[in-house]
Automatic annotation (TrEMBL):
Natural source organism: Catellatospora aurea
Stated family: Belongs to the AfsR/DnrI/RedD regulatory family.
The protein's name: BTAD domain-containing putative transcriptional regulator
Entry keywords, A to Z: DNA-binding, Transcription, Transcription regulation
Keyword Zinc appears in the UniProt entry: no
Amino acid sequence: MGASVITFGVLGPLAVHRDGQPVELPAAMLRRLLAALLSRANQPISADRLADTLWDGNPPATARKTLQVYVHRLRTALGDPARVSHGPGGYRIAATAAELDSLAFADLLGQARTSRRAGDDHAAAKLFEQALALWRAEPYADLPADALLADEVGRLSEEHLRAREESLGLRLDLGGHAEAGAELAALAAAHPYRESLLALLMLAHYRAGRRAEALEVFRAARARLADELGIDAGAALRRVHAAVLRDDPRLDRLTVSELDTLTDVAPAGPVGTVPAQLPADTPVFSGRAAELARLAGLLPADRATGLTTVVISAISGTAGVGKTTLAVHWAHRVAERFPDGQLYLNLRGYDPDGIAMGPAEAVRSLLDAFAVPPERIPATLDGSLGLYRSLLAGKRVLVVLDNVRDAEHVRPLLPGSPTCLVLVTSRDQLPALVATEGARPLTLGLLDDTEARELLSRRIGADRVAAEPEAVGRLLRMCGGLPLALAIAAARAAISAEVPLAELAERLRAEGAGLDAFTGWDAATDVRAVFSWSYRALSARAARLFRLLGLHPGPDLAVPAAASLIGAPLAAAQAALDELERAHLVAEHVPGRYQCHDLLHRYAAELAHGDEPEPERLAALGRLLDHYLHTARQADLRLEAVRQPLPVDDPAEGALVDDPGDAAAAVRWFTAEHACLVAAVNRAAAAGWDRRAWQLSWQLTTYLDRRGHWSDLITVLTAALGATARLGDRPAQAHLHRHVARTQVRLGRHSDALASFHAALEQYRAVGDHAGQGHTHHNLGVALEMQGDTVQALHHTEQALALYITAGYLPGQARALNGIGWYRTLAGDHRAALEHCHRALALFTELGDRNGQAHTLDSLGYAHHQLGDHAQAIGCYEQTLALYLDFGDRFGEAETNAHLGDSHHAVGDAAAATAYWTRALEIFEELGHAEAAAVRDKLRGRPGATAAR
């Protein structure tokens, strides 16, 4: 039996059908949830956005959990759990044009317009009729018009009106004047200011032989526009009127799309100035191909077709990323599409003086652009804004509103005409403008290497760039893809044309500890000054967080780390981060983690050292390090529950401490924080906080070892050794020497490892630590086995067992018993090996040490394999693999896959053997481990390759 066919209808009341039968969604919240998802079909919507929609902007504290319940109920009601999915961007409903009528409508319109461009007007007319027949009523007619739906309803309604207009125009082209005229008259009456409809109605009357009625349409329209709006008719309407007056024979043969070729006449009204206010385009613009393509997509393909709505492209990005440059460049490229004028206004949202342009000053500037006499400008702000919108009604005008602070700053200046296009630039993301005005957001990122190199080439010459590729690479790295920084570096190179780029790069490097390397010649070309404009617009809490981010040593940070920096609750830190993200001073590059550009980080560090008192800086850094130390301690205990926890001081007040909850969550936390934790150890050591430095490194050993990050482990252990030496802490030095030795073994540095083991033993003996000596002898056994000396390996492991018994340390006794069993089986005494390993397994199970269980089951698997009992071996190895997968031991996972391959090969299951060996090889290669060669030999079928372990 085939899968059910489900369809959704939103062009009218919300409707759902499965196999032709209605699907009831009685709960109002389920209907609202489905409608919200369908309004953005095939696009993710964040949980926060959905919660705001469902609860009208006031979601309860339990909103996320309740939303999950609603999603589950919706999936159940639809009978298709995969229909609504969840990913990094949020919730997403999948639908095709065959399943969702709004998509079918868009698809049919696309086909109709394609047919029309190809000259097949009859096919286009049928496709328009099919598209319009899908409409039952206003979209989502039975649902409240929340912000999310209001945007989509407005978009669909405007597209419907445009489709009706195009369809009627096509009927005129096909000779249906009388029928089209009646419908046009009704439509024009409903939309009396839509001049494109009025022009079509005039044409219909004229072609039907009713010239007087055509002229009356124009007379009535002009009077209405003058009386109610104080403006004259637009150019398109005037062109048709002039042609009717002179009985232009072309009116009978031109297609609707060719009407703009008719001769225009000057407007008779008092306002006739066509503004052309765009600033000069940059002659060396480069890159941004993808962004220009997206902007181009805002315009209809047919040059004569009106825009579907007021399209607002909210170009946002960090300071110096080139928002204005892109907006002005693209505006020049499309200026001819807007014959009624191009407006430009800098709203000064982030100016150095902190005084943004208010709406009264802004609208006066815009009215001045149209040469409106002062006596005609209303005294009230609302009146002036109304006149401004009236001037733009029916006109094709491009409006560039630059340097906008927030949505409220720009909202009053948005025209109401469907023929205008607005470009908005801001350092804020303007989410309110996107939600309520249908703005199309376009966030500018940094230039990639190719684009940055092209920008440099255009400014200083391709030959000079090609001549010094290494120096150019250094310059690009210092600028970090920020166009303003690149422009400043290029200007320095152009001014000093005789100086080699290598020398210039060295000068910039010498200046570049701060931002002095990117100091320009005025405020607009000084990176520090430009950054300051965004910084000064922040609230006090967000500004403080930004400053303190300069103290953070890692490449990014999570919300708890940010909260610890400022000593505030999570919610306050999240709000501050959200504000910084809107201002593009940080970016949420993965969910829940934030980073900022290197130059912004330098600027933050300057602010921290200049504006934060030293005690406050030290307290903030202390809270951050305590967050990492204490959370890492909790996470490490989840990975190694039987490990004796290291005593640490209480965390500083204001430092947030998380408990991951289980081993899998601990691995996820360590993985996300990996680079930050390594950097934190080094920062603590450099700041003289030696106790924090070595204790934090100790908490990282289990994770870094299991995940195969041995180079990083050596780095943090070396820093910690320096710290403990300064502290004179011999027990800590003993622990660290032993872990350094174990890591050196992993890296194949066996001679170095032996020296480190002996240094550990010396320190442990000096402080009388029997368990520590046992650990060291046990680890020495492993190192000696890897060098092929199983006799000495067994000897050291037996010493370890004796020391563990003296110390009364049961976890160590279990490990030593497993080690003795392992070396016994390597010597061929498999029965003795099984006895020791079973004792070890029982002890590990009693202790709840799952890592020890995994190692012992591996030893048992090998012993059974050597005895020819391959079924028992496979069973042991499968248990081992499950445990390693559970707590994320990548090296153990690789080894066990290799062993499973050996056992399956022994029973003749070549396919299974190949699969396990292949997986083992992938992980060993990922870890850069020497075992990869042996597994590769097995896969190649080399003789004897499967005999060795």
